[in-house]
Design a protein that fits this description.
- This protein is mainly α.
- It has 15 helices and three strands.
- The longest helix has about 80 residues.
- One of its GO terms (biological process) is protein maturation.
Amino acid sequence: MSTLSSASSEHPLFPPPSIATTPAASDPLLFPAHNPSLDSPSYADVMFNQFHDRFPESNGNGEISGEAVSSPRSQSSSSDYLRISVSNPQKEIESSNSIVPGGNTYTSYLITTSTNVLDYGGSDFSVRRRFKDVVTLSDRLSECYRGFFIPPRPDKSLVESQVMQKQDFVEQRRVELEKYLRRLARHPMVRKSDELRVFLTVHGRMPLPTSIDMASRMLDGAVRLPKQLLGESSSVIEPQDVVHSAKGGRDMLRFFKELKQSVVNDWGNARPSVEEEDKEFLEKKTKLRDLEQQLTNASKQAETLVKAQQEMGEVMGELGLAFIKLTKFENEQATSNTQRVRSADMKNVATAAVKASRLYRELNAHTVKHFDTLHEHMGMMLAVHNAFSDRSSALLTVQTLISELSALHSRADKLETSTSKIFGGDKSRVRKLEDLKDAIRVTEDAKSCAIKEYERIQENNRSEIQRLDEERKADFVDMLKGFVINQVAYSEKIGNEWVKVAEETSKYARERE
């Protein structure tokens, strides 16, 4: 690249001084010296300056820059900032012994935070966290913020960790973790949460309680199930349990009750006592499903464009290399000044092709950055599905409790009727009746809590849909502006390179005339 762009007259690809400069061309009266300061700035320079002023790039050294930690919309909407960077991956040894070779080692990452949020009690923090801590944070946020569009965490990628080079995998995970934490920092509710604050600020072992894995919860629920069926353990859904999904496996009996209710809803003749009646929500849910499909299609087309631009850059580079070889051959075989001039012209074509190749690669890098917005919103669709699943689960819990209450009242009425027919009453039946009344009271409380939880999730869904719509509009406008600006600017830069070649070879057109 440097040999092509240099202007040394001693280079073998350049013509001799006697050919390159004629007396007429060196006359300052006929050809005054060019003053670059008199030129008006090009469209590319103006637009690039404006664009880079609005979207400064990260330096990639773990230092926090404006764009790298918050989007333009978050900067304009609030004076509070929460800037996060992930850097310096470090291999560490776990204190516990492992029978698997290398199983007691893990990678920790330095997480640096800068903020002016008062709840954090400071401005700058640095902690080391491992991927397991990120999993714990994600699980806690999912449990505590049902109905919100919580950004999904990166996958564990066990297969990739075995296939990819260790250094490449660690770097890829570092980038993914940084993106994930920055998405959390942009969420209006999560950024103020105690869970995220503790994760970002507390040194040493993270004090958040580790979530029990699904297999362990299912095992505990399976052990408890026989006792519930035999009456040795309470089979009534407690009020404090309804704020959690039955799919967690904590209560297998509740899980089967809700599964039965789901089957009745789908296949039974009677309509559920409570249904989703928010027509506006149902319409927006359908639109979001359609949006996901449109995002998928747009993402595929964006990938096609990126591949085409990449191929164009590669082909242009190969063309430049071919002309360089041809120029060298012509220059070595030259026996006249005319051949040397033609060799110099081919060298200019080669230089323009190589520069165009570089510009295509730069354009492609910017295009990938802009279209990353599509992939980010596609990833958010998983969060949307999870939030809507929370809503459906909460509604199913309400329906199950209403059915459970109906069954309990029916049993109590029958038992009370049969007891009243016995003179003096039956102590065992009276005791059973009292137990049923206690179960009805607890279930009524649980139903009230379940309805409140369902209404809370409804409100969370409503506010999140509105927020997502606003952010999507702002993000897509920025994406399209950036994409168009770069396409126009780089097209001008590439065009300018070929204009120079056209001007330098214009004498051939005049010779034909």
